[in-house]
Amino acid sequence: MAAVSATQPLVAGLGLRATARADHLQALWQQACDWLVQQPDWPAGQVPTVTTLAVLAHKADHPALQAWRAQLPWATRLLALPPAQLAGQPVPTQSVRLLARYGTGSVAEAAALAGAGPGARLWRPRWVAADGCATLALACAAPSFDCVSGEAIASPLEE
């Protein structure tokens, strides 16, 4: 897993079942924040925020996601990913059910990596809601990728 850095853009990948609720997503985000701020490289007092929420395209209008996103105190980009973009994404979690359906072991982990772009790194395996209806994973973008715009950033050496 990647070392935590507060200077790199943070992408949250989400897996949602039909029964997921906004409070499930908030609880997962709180678990992620609690974990982040305990990491030795995280600046004291800095509150984590995400730049992008990455989900399967057919879940982009999920009521829980829309309600939770509206409650966030910062703006986020919603990235709706086709299932084919997650297939084959190497992730630490290996759900047989998800491998059969989407070609990846974790929708949340694969979505976070896809949303963070080429060279992205997963910070740790996903968090799972108590009832299993929602999952959240965090990835950081490579320094050469702007996950807000989805564009590669030219290095000074390339100019």
Automatic annotation (TrEMBL):
Ranges where the CobE/GbiG C-terminal domain occurs: 10-139
Any coiled-coil regions, as ranges: none
Pfam families: CbiG_C
GO BP annotation list: cobalamin biosynthetic process
Protein name: Cobalamin biosynthesis protein
Organism in which the protein naturally occurs: Comamonas aquatica
Lineage: Bacteria, Pseudomonadati, Pseudomonadota, Betaproteobacteria, Burkholderiales
